[in-house]
Design goal:
Layout (H helix, E strand, L loop, with lengths): L2 H12 L6 H10 L3 E4 L3 E5 L7 E5 L6 H23 L1
Antiparallel strand pairs: 1-2, 2-3
Helix pairs in contact: 1-2
């Protein structure tokens, strides 16, 4: 995970409003997720933790729920990494 992605995550934690699809792409990619094109949405998955996945619409403006879920998913990734790297 990059320090830019960590800073972006902190900003998204502080405010869920006004983010774009491009911002979420940077966040997910910065934390090691992959983004593949699906039929109507793009699919976001983490290669090391396949159960960490979600979908994203292709339009630029996003509902705040997408940002809230991204923060939650990344927090879960961090917790899993700490659990498995720490033991």
């Amino acid at each position: 995970m990059s320090s830019k992605a960590e800073k972006l995550l902190e900003k998204m934690r502080a405010s869920k409003f006004g983010w774009t699809r491009r911002d979420l792409d940077r966040l997910y990619l910065g934390f090691g997720f992959t983004i593949t094109h699906g039929a109507r949405h793009d699919i976001v998955k983490h290669p090391d933790y396949p159960r960490l996945r979600t979908t994203l619409p292709r339009h630029n403006t996003l509902a705040t729920g997408y940002v809230e879920f991204a923060v939650k998913l990344i927090d879960e990734l961090i917790a899993l990494k700490e659990k498995f790297d720490g033991s």
